[in-house]
Amino acid sequence: MFGLFKSAKPHTLTIEGVGEFTVNPKETILSAALRQGVRFPYSCKVGGCATCKCQLKGGKVKELTSSAFILSAEDLDNQFILGCQSQLKSDVTVYVGGLSDGSSEVKSLSGEIAAVERLTQDMVRVSVKLPEPLNYLPGQYALVSVPSITSGPRSYSFATAPKGDTVDFFIREVPGGEMSVWANQSAKAGENITIDGPYGDFYLRPGSGEMLMLAGGSGLAPVLAILEDAMAHKIDRDVIFIYGARTQADLSCQEDIAQIASNWSGAFRFIPVLSEEPEDSDWEGLRGLVTDFIPEKAAAVTQTYMCGPPPMLDAAEACLKEHNLSNDGIFCDRFTNRSYNNK
Predict the structure, then answer these.
(1) Which residues in the chain come in under a pLDDT of 70?
(2) What burial letters (b/e) apply to 241-254, b meaning 16+ CB within 10 Å?
(3) Tens digit of pLDDT for each residue in 23-33?
(4) How much is the pLDDT for 152?
(5) Is residue 205, in this structure, part of any structural domain at all?
C-alpha cells in the first residue's frame, strides 16, 4: 500500500541540437529549459501565446491545459505541444524551431533605439541599433525587452531582411498593452533595448511555382522581410500578395511594397483588401476579407506564407485546403499572442 505514495521521479529532456538535462517532477519543459540556461522562446508562460511551441519527437507528456485552442490542426497532427504547459511523464525528446536546427545562433544583444517611425494611426516601426549584426532568417522573430517593462519580454517579428547591425520591428498598439502602448506613445531614440533571438520556423522554403503571401495588420512585418530578401536574391517565382487592413489609413509600407514589386524577378501582384472602409470613400480597390479572394486570385499557388490574427489564418487555411493545397505547402506565423498580440 505504501507504493501509492512513492515520490515522482525526475526524467530526462533532450532538445535536439542543444543537449539533454534532468527535469524535476511537476516542472514544465519551458521552466526546466530556462533553469538550465537554454534560450527557449516564450512570452506569456500560461499557454496563451504559442511562442513556446515545440515538436514532441519521443516520449510522453502531461498537458496542463489543452493546446487545441492555440495550435493549428497541422501543428497538432505533427505532435507540437506547448513547452509551458507540458510536464514529463517519461524521458522526452523535443525539437524547437530556430533553436534546435542551428540555422541561426541565438544571441542576447543590448542595443538602443535608433528611430521610431509612425506607420499608421496605431502602428510604429522601431529601428534598433545593435553592437553587432544579428543573423536571422527573414520571417523569424525576437524577444524584445526594455528596462521600463518589468512584466517580461514580448515577441515581435523582424520587419526587414538582415541589414548589418540594425533591426526593425512593427509594433501595433493594443489598448491596455504595456509594451505596445510604450512603443507607440513614448518610445524615443537613444533608449536601451535588448533583443534576444532569433526564434521561429516561419521562413521561405525551397520550391517552384506560384507563391501566395497573406498578411493582416502588423502581420505584414515577417512577410515583408521574406519578400525583401527573396527580391535581393533574385527569386523568380510568381507572387500574389494579399494584404488585409481595416481602412486606407491602416495600409502601411506601400512604398516598400512598390519597390519590391518593381524589382521582382517574376510576376508580382499586390492586392490590398479593406474590411471597414466607409462606403462613401474614394477607395476603388477590393473590400471585404482577405479570404474572400483566395479562390479567385490564388488558384494555382504551390506554397502559401501567411501571418496575422488567428481567425484570419484559420479561415485562410481552411479555404486553401478546400482548393487542394497540401499542408506541406502552407506556412503560418499565427501571431496568437505575439506581435498581434504581445501587449
Answers:
(1) 1-7, 43, 98-104, 335-343
(2) bbbbbbeeebbbbe
(3) 999 999 999 98
(4) 81
(5) no
| Per-residue pLDDT at 17 | 80
Domain count, the chain: 3
Amino acid at 14: T
Place of cell 532569433: 198
Spell out the residues 6+ positions from residue 242 whose beta carbon is closer than 8 angstroms to its own: 212, 213, 214, 215, 271, 272, 273, 290, 293, 294, 297, 298
Q: What digits encode the pLDDT tens for the residues 241-294?
A: 999 999 999 999 999 999 999 999 999 999 999 999 999 999 999 999 988 888
- pTM across the whole model: 0.75
Which amino acid is residue 233, in one-letter code?
A: H
Residue 56 lies in a domain: yes
Euclidean distance between CA atoms 224 and 18, whole angstroms: 30
Q: For position 165, which CATH number holds?
A: 2.40.30.10
For the chain, the residue count is 343
How much of the chain is in helix, strand and coil states, percent to nearest 5? 25, 30, 45
What pLDDT does residue 253 have? Answer: 94
- Integer Cα distance of 275 and 289 in angstroms: 6
Q: Which of 66, 95, 124 is the last residue of a domain?
A: 95
The cell numbers describing 239, all together, are: 507572387
Looking at 95, 118, 137, the residue that finishes a domain is: 95
- Give the list of residues 6+ apart from residue 28 with CB closer than 8 angstroms, or none: 64, 83, 84, 85, 86, 87
Domain carrying residue 133: 107-199
Distance CA 254, CA 82 (A): 36
